[in-house]
Design goal:
A 7-stranded mixed beta sheet has the order 1-7-6-5-4-2-3, with helices on both faces. Helix 1 packs across helix 9, helix 2 runs parallel beside helix 9 and helix 3 crosses helix 4. The chain is 38% helix and 15% strand. The model has no long low-confidence stretch (mean pLDDT 96). The protein is globular, with a radius of gyration of 21 Å. It contains 14 helices and 11 strands. By secondary structure, it is of the alpha/beta class. The structure holds pyridoxal-5'-phosphate. The site of pyridoxal-5'-phosphate has 15 residues, from helix 3.
């Protein structure tokens, strides 16, 4: 019987030169040649490759069902590597509701190199098709989206891109390979901020790209990784491998907690609206049920009122940390508009929640209590 990803994530990430159950960390920046002046294990210099990184990359490829994977020092470094495969004159289609940093990267860094982009509502496949021009080389998908939890039908949108010969990338940070597998649905690349659920403990930055095929594009990305040098340290890789071993159980429990909390808030008079793809009232419910194993552990809400009501709720909560980021075992609440600076696109009464592994009754209690002081 073919073993499940949960089992393989635990048992395959070993580098046992000894009988140690837990892999060692290879801090060496360089690797010695043998008597024939060859590299016996294929490692030359740690910017190009390192045993811990190779182990992480193999685990990521296995989880996403890709032929090869590349680890980076952050999610943004991974995204940047994808954009670096483009040339002046190329055009990118991105979601109108993607991680803030994705389009900011195009706007502030890549526009200067002659790369243009359009933002579209990807819940509407017609809009995606209309945004494609003869210069379009890349389609970026992010689902569920940040922070409105919009759901893109990956299979439909990826097949549109394919019919135009456009490379499709899915940011699968929120879904994780345990809940959603974009490569199986027609995407060419998956991108992760492994800072989030893959690491899972808010203590390591990382990014990853997983390639469906070990093709020319994968080779180009490997050049960018090694030459650009935005690589994770051996310890970062080690922490990520450790985090990934518990990804499946974390995701199941965090999604279960999130479902209960979203339901509670959806029925609360102080909350105007809840965006969670697990609620049958969510516009993306049907597509999410089709392409996701579980609806995930992220949701956002519109607090009745404005910025001050939203901030008051966020700061009266005791168990939810008022910090940016997500995907950790601790619950987070964030006022996204504050994070977005002077011209926020996110509404002022919106709070984004990342639900952790605390006992669900304690989280419900904390929310119920904080909502009484609004
Ligand atoms: C955090 C995040 C990123 C950026 O990743 P970093 O690790 O912070 O560089 C990209 N996409 C999504 C969906 C994210 O949540």
């Amino acid at each position: 019987m073919k073993r499940h990803p949960e089992t393989r994530a635990i048992h395959e990430a070993n580098l046992s030169a000894t009988s140690a159950v837990v892999p060692p960390i290879y801090l060496s920046t360089t690797f010695e040649r043998n008597f024939d002046y060859e590299l016996p294990d294929g490692f030359l210099y740690s910017r190009a490759d390192n045993p811990n990184r190779q182990q992480l990359e193999r685990t990521l490829a296995m989880l996403e069902g890709g032929e090869t994977a590349l680890a980076f020092s952050s999610g943004q470094a991974a995204t940047s590597a994808v954009f670096q495969t483009l040339q002046s004159g190329d055009h990118v289609v991105v979601p109108d509701d993607a991680y803030y940093g994705t389009s900011l990267l195009l706007e502030t860094l890549f526009k200067g190199f002659g790369i243009t982009f359009s933002k579209v509502n990807m819940t509407d496949p017609g809009a995606v098709e209309r945004a494609i021009t003869s210069a379009t080389k890349l389609l970026w998908i992010e689902t569920p989206s940040n922070p409105l939890l919009k759901i893109t039908d990956i299979e439909v949108v990826a097949s549109i891109a394919k019919s135009y010969g456009i490379v499709t990338v899915a940011d699968n940070t929120w879904g994780t390979p345990l809940l959603q597998r974009p490569l199986d649905l027609g995407c060419d690349l998956v991108m992760h901020s492994s800072t989030k659920y893959l690491g899972g403990h808010s203590d390591v930055m990382g990014g990853a790209l997983i390639c469906k095929e070990n093709s020319g594009l994968a080779g180009r990305l490997r050049q960018i990784q090694a030459l650009g040098g935005a690589v994770p340290s051996p310890f970062d890789c080690w922490l990520l491998i450790r985090g990934i071993k518990t990804l499946a159980v974390r995701m199941k429990q965090q999604a279960s907690n999130a479902g209960a909390l979203a339901e509670f808030l959806n029925n609360h008079p102080a909350i105007e609206q809840v965006h969670y793809p697990g609620l049958s009232t969510h516009p993306g419910f049907a597509v999410a049920s089709k392409q996701m194993e579980l609806p995930g552990a992220m949701f956002s809400v519109h607090v009745r009122g404005g910025k001050s009501e939203a901030i008051r709720l966020a700061t009266r909560l005791e168990l939810f940390r008022t910090a940016t980021s997500l995907g950790g075992i601790e619950s987070f609440v964030e006022h996204r508009a504050t994070y977005e600076g002077d011209n926020p696109v996110t509404p002022q009464n919106l709070l984004r929640f990342s639900i952790g592994l605390e006992h669900v009754d304690d989280l419900l209690d904390d929310l119920a209590r904080a909502l009484t002081v609004l």
